[in-house]
Structures are given as C-alpha cells and as structure tokens.
Amino acid sequence: GDWTVAVHPDEAPAASSGWTAARARGLPYQTELRMHCAAADGDAAGLSGAKAYRWHLVRAVPVHGEDCGIQHWVGTHTDIHDQKSAARMLANLNQLLEQQLAERTADRDRMWELSTDVMVVTDLSGHVLSANPAFTQVLGWTSGELLGRELRSLEHPDDLHLCAPLLAPSEGATTLRWESRYRHSDGRYRTLEWTAVKDAQ
User: What is the pTM of this model?
Assistant: First the structure.
C-alpha cells in the first residue's frame, strides 16, 4: 500500500512528491517526517482517540535486477522521535541562553553609559581602550582625547606607585583597590577611589 497515508498531513505532500520523483529517477530517497503510530498503553493520545505521530527517518534504495532495471525497492523507517525531541530541547535551551546573554549585555551597557562612576578599560600596558561618559563628567577628558593614551599620564607623579601592581605580570585575575589623584582637563587634580580588575585572559 501507499505508506504516505500514515504521514502527518503537514509533511504528506512533500513526502509523496519526493517519493514519486525518486521512483521516476531511480534514485535513493531519504527524508525526515512524522508518521502515525499506535499509541502506547496509557498514552493520552490513545485514550482521547487522537492520532499519535512520531518523527521517523525514512530511507528507500532501488535494487537493480540482472537486466539493470529496478527489480524492487528496499525501505526503512527509523524512529528518531527521541533524538528530535532532545535536539529541539537543546535548541530551545540555546535560544534561552542567548536571550539571557543579550539581556545581561544590555544591562552592562546601560550601567556603562549611565553610571556616575568613572569606568575605563585599558590594555595590559595601561593604554586606554574605552572610557564611559562619567570619565568626561568627572575629569573633563573626552573619549577621543583618552583613546590610546596611557592612563598613568593623568595620574599624579607621587601616586604612580599605587597602581604599579596592576601592570605587573601575575597569574589569574587580580583585583586592586586604591586612591590616587588624577589630573582634570583643567589642570587640577581630583582624588578618585579605584577598583581595578586584571583580566586573566
């Protein structure tokens, strides 16, 4: 009989046309689709009379006779429902994790932009890679004036030793706290309390 009658209505048209094309060309046929199956004992679908469908991997290959024509076809239906369910759960989990990461990134960006605390990122040699708007508000320097500049060039000469450990080689992440004076764009110094984290990467 026609095996496609057991195929889920959403996949039946493609399954039927694909199988017809494969037979016409004499080429192997393979697809994934949902097929009607007998409900297991106690299955809600079985109790309600609704059809239960499970995902199957369907394959068919032609077997040629001695005259090189197709003598018959050999087909298999492999139940892959559990694998598909697991893959779907993994995809949903990945989507949730991506959404959570995007939300955390947005929160971090808002904190960077709106915080009244001075925030700055430097490379391992102490040159400024980025600074938040509060840097300009507190010390007067614009992002353009800071980018690529050695942050220590703004520190009071008598305080340079305080942040030296941050630039020293170390294993793992290092967190330092200190107070030092930094030069405002108007030439005067402001005392700032710093918390610095040295990235382990």
Answer: 0.50
Backbone angles phi, psi at 66, to 5 degrees: -65, -25
Summarised one tens digit per residue, pLDDT across range 41-98 is 445 444 445 568 888 998 988 888 777 777 778 888 888 888 888 888 888 888 999 9
d(CA 130, CA 144): 9
Which CA distances in Å does 56 have to 2, 18, 88, 181?
Answer: 16, 15, 15, 70
Task: Report the SS3 class of residue 82.
Answer: helix
C-alpha distances (whole Å) from 158 to each of 113, 152, 154 are: 31, 11, 12
What are the distances in angstroms from CA 114 to CA 106, 183, 186? 12, 22, 24
- Give every CB contact of residue 119 below 8 A, 6+ residues apart in sequence: 112, 131, 132, 134, 135
Q: Position 121: which residue type?
A: V
The residues with which 144 forms a beta bridge, in sequence order, are none
